[in-house]
Amino acid sequence: MRSLRTLIILVSTLTLLGFAAPNGAEESIAIVTQRTSDINNVSIETLKLVYLRKLLLDSNGTRWIPLNLPSAHELRQIFSFTLFKKRPDELEDYWNEQYFQGVTPPKVLASEEAILRFVAITPGAIGYVHQRNVDERVKVLKIMPISADN
Known about the structure:
Layout: H1 2-16, E1 28-34, H2 44-51, E2 65-68, H3 74-84, H4 92-99, E3 107-108, H5 112-121, E4 125-130, E5 138-145
Parallel strand pairs: 2-3, 2-4
Antiparallel strand pairs: 1-4, 1-5
Protein backbone atom coordinates (compact mmCIF):
# COMPACT_ATOMS: atom_id res chain seq x y z
CA MET A 1 0.00 0.00 0.00
CA ARG A 2 2.84 2.37 0.84
CA SER A 3 4.54 1.82 -2.53
CA LEU A 4 1.26 2.56 -4.33
CA ARG A 5 0.97 5.80 -2.36
CA THR A 6 4.59 6.61 -3.21
CA LEU A 7 3.96 5.93 -6.90
CA ILE A 8 0.88 8.16 -6.89
CA ILE A 9 2.86 10.96 -5.23
CA LEU A 10 5.71 10.55 -7.71
CA VAL A 11 3.43 10.58 -10.76
CA SER A 12 1.57 13.61 -9.40
CA THR A 13 4.84 15.41 -8.75
CA LEU A 14 6.14 14.64 -12.22
CA THR A 15 2.92 15.91 -13.74
CA LEU A 16 3.02 19.12 -11.69
CA LEU A 17 6.68 19.68 -12.55
CA GLY A 18 5.96 19.33 -16.24
CA PHE A 19 7.89 16.15 -16.85
CA ALA A 20 6.01 15.39 -19.99
CA ALA A 21 8.75 15.57 -22.59
CA PRO A 22 8.22 17.65 -25.74
CA ASN A 23 6.29 15.96 -28.56
CA GLY A 24 5.40 13.02 -26.34
CA ALA A 25 9.01 11.80 -26.14
CA GLU A 26 9.88 9.98 -22.96
CA GLU A 27 12.22 11.78 -20.56
CA SER A 28 15.30 9.83 -19.44
CA ILE A 29 18.04 9.87 -16.84
CA ALA A 30 21.59 9.49 -18.17
CA ILE A 31 24.16 7.76 -15.97
CA VAL A 32 27.46 9.44 -16.79
CA THR A 33 31.16 9.01 -16.11
CA GLN A 34 34.42 10.57 -17.25
CA ARG A 35 34.75 10.63 -21.03
CA THR A 36 38.12 8.84 -20.94
CA SER A 37 36.90 5.98 -18.73
CA ASP A 38 37.40 2.43 -20.04
CA ILE A 39 33.95 1.54 -18.67
CA ASN A 40 31.33 1.72 -21.44
CA ASN A 41 28.16 0.59 -19.65
CA VAL A 42 26.80 -0.29 -16.25
CA SER A 43 24.02 -2.66 -15.22
CA ILE A 44 21.20 -1.64 -12.92
CA GLU A 45 22.45 -4.15 -10.34
CA THR A 46 25.97 -2.68 -10.44
CA LEU A 47 24.53 0.83 -10.20
CA LYS A 48 22.57 -0.16 -7.09
CA LEU A 49 25.70 -1.61 -5.48
CA VAL A 50 27.76 1.48 -6.34
CA TYR A 51 25.13 3.87 -4.93
CA LEU A 52 24.72 1.76 -1.77
CA ARG A 53 28.54 1.84 -1.43
CA LYS A 54 28.71 -1.98 -1.53
CA LEU A 55 30.83 -1.97 -4.70
CA LEU A 56 33.77 0.37 -4.29
CA LEU A 57 35.98 -0.38 -7.32
CA ASP A 58 35.19 -0.66 -11.02
CA SER A 59 36.47 -3.54 -13.16
CA ASN A 60 39.77 -1.68 -13.69
CA GLY A 61 40.37 -1.13 -9.97
CA THR A 62 39.43 2.55 -10.03
CA ARG A 63 37.46 3.70 -6.98
CA TRP A 64 33.86 4.57 -7.79
CA ILE A 65 32.83 8.06 -6.68
CA PRO A 66 29.02 8.07 -6.82
CA LEU A 67 27.38 11.48 -6.92
CA ASN A 68 23.90 12.53 -5.87
CA LEU A 69 21.87 15.67 -6.19
CA PRO A 70 20.39 17.12 -2.96
CA SER A 71 17.63 14.89 -1.55
CA ALA A 72 14.93 17.49 -2.26
CA HIS A 73 15.97 17.83 -5.93
CA GLU A 74 13.29 16.44 -8.24
CA LEU A 75 15.78 14.39 -10.29
CA ARG A 76 17.24 12.83 -7.11
CA GLN A 77 13.74 11.83 -6.06
CA ILE A 78 13.11 10.24 -9.46
CA PHE A 79 16.54 8.55 -9.62
CA SER A 80 16.15 7.09 -6.14
CA PHE A 81 12.68 5.78 -6.86
CA THR A 82 13.70 4.42 -10.27
CA LEU A 83 16.74 2.61 -8.87
CA PHE A 84 15.63 1.55 -5.39
CA LYS A 85 11.83 1.98 -5.45
CA LYS A 86 12.36 4.29 -2.47
CA ARG A 87 12.58 8.03 -1.95
CA PRO A 88 15.86 9.43 -0.56
CA ASP A 89 14.35 9.93 2.90
CA GLU A 90 13.35 6.25 2.96
CA LEU A 91 17.05 5.34 2.72
CA GLU A 92 17.98 7.36 5.83
CA ASP A 93 17.94 4.35 8.16
CA TYR A 94 20.24 2.47 5.77
CA TRP A 95 22.74 5.37 5.70
CA ASN A 96 22.59 5.86 9.48
CA GLU A 97 23.51 2.21 9.93
CA GLN A 98 26.25 2.42 7.29
CA TYR A 99 27.72 5.53 8.88
CA PHE A 100 28.37 3.63 12.13
CA GLN A 101 30.20 1.02 10.07
CA GLY A 102 32.42 3.70 8.54
CA VAL A 103 30.64 3.85 5.18
CA THR A 104 29.66 7.31 3.97
CA PRO A 105 26.87 8.01 1.47
CA PRO A 106 27.55 9.27 -2.06
CA LYS A 107 28.78 12.85 -2.39
CA VAL A 108 26.04 15.42 -2.92
CA LEU A 109 26.50 18.17 -5.51
CA ALA A 110 24.14 21.11 -5.92
CA SER A 111 23.15 20.80 -9.59
CA GLU A 112 23.29 18.76 -12.74
CA GLU A 113 25.92 21.15 -14.08
CA ALA A 114 28.04 20.54 -10.97
CA ILE A 115 27.74 16.80 -11.56
CA LEU A 116 28.78 17.18 -15.20
CA ARG A 117 31.80 19.31 -14.25
CA PHE A 118 32.93 16.97 -11.45
CA VAL A 119 32.48 13.83 -13.55
CA ALA A 120 34.37 15.39 -16.48
CA ILE A 121 37.55 15.85 -14.43
CA THR A 122 37.38 13.05 -11.86
CA PRO A 123 38.37 9.45 -12.63
CA GLY A 124 35.86 7.02 -11.14
CA ALA A 125 33.11 9.61 -10.72
CA ILE A 126 29.63 8.46 -11.68
CA GLY A 127 26.52 10.60 -11.62
CA TYR A 128 23.15 11.18 -13.20
CA VAL A 129 21.58 14.03 -15.13
CA HIS A 130 18.63 14.48 -17.44
CA GLN A 131 19.61 12.95 -20.78
CA ARG A 132 18.89 16.29 -22.47
CA ASN A 133 21.73 17.87 -20.43
CA VAL A 134 24.46 15.41 -21.49
CA ASP A 135 27.26 16.95 -23.52
CA GLU A 136 30.72 16.04 -24.86
CA ARG A 137 32.37 16.41 -21.44
CA VAL A 138 31.07 13.03 -20.23
CA LYS A 139 30.36 9.47 -21.37
CA VAL A 140 26.90 7.94 -20.99
CA LEU A 141 26.97 4.51 -19.33
CA LYS A 142 23.23 3.88 -19.18
CA ILE A 143 19.92 5.51 -20.03
CA MET A 144 17.11 5.03 -17.52
CA PRO A 145 13.69 6.02 -18.86
CA ILE A 146 11.43 8.05 -16.60
CA SER A 147 7.92 6.74 -16.87
CA ALA A 148 4.75 6.47 -14.81
CA ASP A 149 5.82 2.92 -13.88
CA ASN A 150 8.93 4.25 -12.10
